[in-house]
From TrEMBL:
GO terms for cellular component: extracellular region. Residues 1-24 form the signal peptide. This is NHL repeat containing protein. InterPro entries: 6-blade_b-propeller_TolB-like. SUPFAM superfamilies: Calcium-dependent phosphotriesterase (SSF63829), NHL repeat (SSF101898). It comes from Granulicella tundricola (strain ATCC BAA-1859 / DSM 23138 / MP5ACTX9). Transmembrane segments: none annotated.
Amino acid sequence: MTFPLKISLLLPFCLLAAGCSVQSTPTPPTTPVPVPVPPTTSGQIDGKVLAGQQPLSDATIQLFAAGTSGYGTGAVSLLSTPVTTAQDGTFSLIGDYTCPSASSQLYVLATGGNPGLTSSTSNSASVMMAALGPCTLFGSTYTLDPNAYININEVTTVASVYALAAFINPTTLQVGTSSTNATGLTNAFLTVPNLVDISTGQARTATLAANGTVPQSTINSLGNTLDLCIKSNGTGTPCSTLFAAATSTGATAPTNTLQAVLNIATHPASQAAALYQIATTSTSFSPALTAAPNDWTLSVPYKTSNSLQTRVALDADGNVWINNTVSGAVLGRSGPYSSVFKLSNQGAFLSPAIGYFANGFNALSDLAVDPTGNVWLTDSAVSSVYKLSTSGTVLATAQTGISVPNALAIDGAGNAWIANNNGTLAALSNSAVKLPGSPFTGSTLPYPTGMAIDPSSNIWIADYSATLAFGLAAFNNAGTQLPGSPYLDTNLIQTHHIASDSAGNIWLTATQSNTLHKFTPNGVPTQPGGYTGGGLNGPASVAIDGAGNAWVANGADSKSIPHIVEFSNAGLPLSGSTGYASSPVSLIGATPADDLAIDSSGNVWTLPGGYYIIEYIGTATPVATPFSLAIKNNKLAQKP
């Protein structure tokens, strides 16, 4: 079904030049075949394009709907004739175009333009962006909000590109997602207004739900890096200097400002100091950073509690689940007790502020999401396993075969696998009924701390023992230990959480030796002694993104600025010598990072172990969530 919208071109216009190089301007997506529709009228939509604080005249404005047939492809031009900005940078839209569907995600590009130079100037290196979000119903018409004002500048470009980085084609600049990841794209678009007010073009100080701190100074500094290039004619030093600094090792140099931001977002550790020096040449956006950052990641810390948080998991909607130990006084009870938080993908509370809790919750040790969205919890203090609905209601409780459960994983059939502290492996059906033969014996691991299920439905268990020279055991889904298990490797002492990649390789961290380990599906270490570098510092947890890269949460960093680390699937460090640092904010009450997870938008969520969860915006490659559903759909550690 198509939805008619009215939009007319009130200003002089110019077409995107045919045959323009894609290296200087984005390739226009295919214009859809017009569909006859009855005329309807929507309100006028106004906007303005600014280079810093000065108008950008004669810029070409084009409206797109993001594609739905593949990443970075299939975007649809919604204006048969683009609009150009007036002398004061303004533009107005009232006329005919068709929104492909009610859920289409719209964005606008401003290409070229004159920043106040000679009348013939058009800066082909200037490409800016504002992500607008979905078509919505106003009266009887699906349209952009006619009451909204669209402000396109360097700051809206930074916020839009970072949030949508995983969905942007670096050459054509088209935005698109796969037919099976509409959720990831939708959540990425929703992230933009959490960072910036599109109507004013200013970076926010707090997220819309008010519990997240926006890295305003970092966003403004990134905006300042683009400013002098956009204010030039595009052929001189301001742009060439920017493009050189925004080129990572082995990558293609950008030829326009949107490509430059995309390069920075996807290679945030590259030439951080050089980019900061460029940022200091402009004061258009403030407050800005006063010293060069460790890297150019954008991260948002969300305040969630006044207590200890240890595990995080994501459901199919991108919602974030966190287990939590709270003071009994908060719940009106004596002693410490546990609850579980549920946050939206934009960090807003979906659970009560104290979380979901039941009288039996005491010391929640792990959590996982099953293929239907129910959340499972282990409680090591009362040797119980709980199954919760999406609204936090306890649906089932299991204790048979459960003995001080420390780790949990859900397979593609919805069965729950639990590693007990006595070395046994328990298995429950999706109804929380003990499976035949459970609990299974033979792992010999005395203190399990992490579990993962590989694409073949084998169950892998990590052990934290500080005295054993091994820390990994594996079972098939019949409960039989695999040949050679448990597996040995030097430096594999004090392991934490583990993960499987799409090939069935198992990744785990070793805190004591500051190493990251990878085992083949047969239990053979790919690098005896483990991988080092990249900023590893007491690594505590690992997750695999849709490109197969390994992401690690450090457990020994400063509590005020935790770090995460990225490795390629071949074990090469990608995050520089110190890892990626969170934005410079005070995380009062936080402790070093303990767990992390990656969502279907490419955001990395990490727990600093205290009162916050930190979201790194658009840093990773999207991955299918939850793990159990990914296993069921043969999409584990792959793009959805």
